[in-house]
Structures are given as C-alpha cells and as structure tokens.
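Renewal narrative, Specific Aim 1. Our central claim is that a sequence can be written position by position from structural information alone. The example that follows is taken directly from our test logs and has not been curated for this report. It begins with the structure tokens describing the chain, in the order in which they were read.
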C-alpha cells in the first residue's frame, strides 16, 4: 500500500522535494503511476488537469490528498468538491491561514468531509495548535502522522534524502538551507507528545493514530479491537513506551 506524495506538487510548496522531478500536468494514469498498490496520492490543486485527475483517482478507489500547494481557498474547495478527502501534513508546505485568503488550510478546516494529517513533533506544528485543532475538526477527522524520513531512530548525523543531504539533530531533520526534510518521529512518540502536551486524552490520541487513518483508507479490519478485525496490536506500558508488537496474532517484538 503506497502513498504517492508527488510528482504533482506545486514548486511554491515544494519544501524538501526536488522541483526537478515535479510535473505540471496532473495525469497519473497516463504517466503509469496508478496500480493496485497505490491507495493515497497527494497533489496540488490548481495544477493543470488537477480536478479531472482527482475525479479519476477517486473512481479508481485512490484517496486524494491536498498538499504541497499554494492553492487558494477557492481552488482547494474545488478539489474537495471533486473528491479530495485528506490534507497532507496540515499547515506545512501550504500557504498560512489568512483572514482575506484562507487558502488550503482554511478549506480543509472548514469542510466537514475533509480529514487532515498533522505532524506532532513540536517542530512542524506548535504544540498549542493541537488543542484548538481537535476542537475544530474532532478526532474523527484528524490523523496523526510522523512524516518520518529514513534517518528516524538512527540518531544525529548526516544522511541522504534522495539526492539531497540531510542533517539530523535531536529534534529535526533539515536540508543544508534549514528547510525541514520530514521528521525523525516514531508513532509512539507522537502519542506521547499529544498526551504530554495536554492536547487530548490517551484514548483520543490513539484514535487519531489508528482508527481515523484506517477509516480514511477504508480499512475496516484495522484500527480497532473487535471480533473479525486483524490481530495487529501494539502494547504500551504506563509511560506509553512500546512493550510488545503483535502481528496477525503473533508476538514479533517483546521488550
């Protein structure tokens, strides 16, 4: 199951993506990018053919997300009307909310059909944002994401993100010019962050980390503990540290 974050992104919202690999005309089927493994695609509204492509992707059972974009409020609303249903790392790589031009942020916050992903590392988005975001959207419309790059868990140092050098410290991963290049988060840290910041309850954090993402992708056998659902579980201790991982009913990690 793949999430394609590109190549149909706006150069104005590229951030750590290499603009040389971006395509201006949105045509995923024509470019051979759609197969049974692609379940989610991020694209920038406002690009040529974007609305037609969104409708085609939805018809093919691909969840379309708005991201890496300089889209206006009207363009983002049009994308949502065409079938887009997610916002890729809300607030990041899109124009900030403005009282005269709400942009993609405003459209995603206002539309009850839209679910939004948010990076909860305290770097991409300030911790105080999460309290009012949860009040505005509800935990059923927020997915917690790590946006982790390959250096996650490896410690400070210099790494590669495609053809780019990335420097990692204790809190973030950045290109040489200081641009954030994904994160070094793990999902259990995301849950600890939200609870530790007092942004929500543990149950609410777990919903945003598991049930809501599964619902977004139509995976009714994941993200919940019920008869008939997949026996894929993570066991946390009282400090919310991972103690066990269970896959298909079998313990594959035991701390």
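The sequence written for that structure reads:
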């Amino acid at each position: 199951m793949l999430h394609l974050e590109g190549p149909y992104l706006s150069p104005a919202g590229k951030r750590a993506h290499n603009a040389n690999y971006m395509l201006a005309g949105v045509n995923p089927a024509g470019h051979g990018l759609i197969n049974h493994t692609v379940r989610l695609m991020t694209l920038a509204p406002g690009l040529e053919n974007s609305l037609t492509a969104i409708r085609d992707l939805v018809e093919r059972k691909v969840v379309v997300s708005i991201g890496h974009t300089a889209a206006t409020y009207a363009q983002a609303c049009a994308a949502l009307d065409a079938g887009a249903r997610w916002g890729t790392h809300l607030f990041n790589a899109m124009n900030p909310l403005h009282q005269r031009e709400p942009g993609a942020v405003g459209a995603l916050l206002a539309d009850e059909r839209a679910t939004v992903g948010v990076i909860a590392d305290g770097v991409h988005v300030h911790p105080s944002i999460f309290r009012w975001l949860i009040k505005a959207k509800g935990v059923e419309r927020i997915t917690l994401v790590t946006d982790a790059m390959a250096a996650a868990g490896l410690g400070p140092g210099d790494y590669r993100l495609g053809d780019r050098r990335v420097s990692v410290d204790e809190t973030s991963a950045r290109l040489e010019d200081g641009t954030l290049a994904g994160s070094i988060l793990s999902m259990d840290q995301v849950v600890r962050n939200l609870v530790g910041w007092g942004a929500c309850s543990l149950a609410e954090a777990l919903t945003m980390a598991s049930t809501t993402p599964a619902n977004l992708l139509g995976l009714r056998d994941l993200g919940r503990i019920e008869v008939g659902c997949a026996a894929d579980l993570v066991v946390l201790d009282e400090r919310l540290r991972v103690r066990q991982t269970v896959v298909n009913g079998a313990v594959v990690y035991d701390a």
